[in-house]
Amino acid sequence: xxxxxxxxxxxxxxxxxxxxxxxxxxxxxxxxxxxxxxxxxxxxxxxxxxxxxxxxxxxxxxxxxxxxxxxxxxxxxxxxxxxxxxxxxxxxxxxxxxxxxxxxxxxxxxxxxxxxxxxxxxxxxxxxxxxxxxxxxxxxxxxxxxxxxxxxxxxxxxxxxxxxxxxxxxxxxxxxxxxxxxxxxxxxxxxxxxxxxxxxxxxxxxxxxxxxxxxxxxxxxxxxxxxxxxxxxxxxxxxxxxxxxxxxxxxxxxxxxxxxxxxxxxxxxxxxxxxxxxxxxxxxxxxxxxxxxxxxxxxxxxxxxxxxxxxxxxxxxxxxxxxxxxxxxxxxx
Length: 333
Fold this sequence. Notes:
The protein is an alpha/beta fold.
């Protein structure tokens, strides 16, 4: 496997990644945002300034890289990501892929499915963006993003998963997923593996949405990574539950297959999130990309987790994942 990964400013050796957050968003825009001409959202300059400020805060605590797994149909702007990366010297990896049916660009691909070409065209798109570039930006994606909803995978979402598997096999690119409420990650994993994707090339994202230890260990035992990547989003699941579930895994020495992040959304296309939603979140934590380091790491250490285990999740696992290396064999319980 190659020892390089595509960033928005070009390929780098995986050893240059350093401490890496594996699921953060510079910006998103739910499909249809452009139709609301009364609420266009922040200007490009405002978004760049916001993102530069967030990254400078990360650099101040030693973080060197991040994965922004925004799929094509959720407001992705790789030109903005490139500008931010160039201004800061920060490594940003972007994705190619499509979001889940209920909140993504379903309408376009539903039409393509009616004429029987959707899966092939999706795969062609993913391969092109991984190997040749995204539009005329010259930016190449470094990963494929897929997503499914709560408690089931729709026919459309299975189409995206199949196209992602096809592209992953052709290019060798890894896959990261979105799950809702800690469901369907095991089904995502099994489908992709059955299509030929190596399990260690898959991150099952938002696994911290579940406190089910058997669900977590089942995915780990099959060889994939867990994304404990929504720290700070207490509006969905309290961090107390995430920390408890993570500590339980770390006490069984499962750190070699876990990556961490916040799933923060730093900017939005169109109108920002409603104030009623923002009022339900801790203002000190809200979209703070340093939250894991400043507030979660001390709690992990207090619970008996070692600094070496934390470093494994932040440094070793992202490097190993993008290099395509198998995780270390886990000792028998």
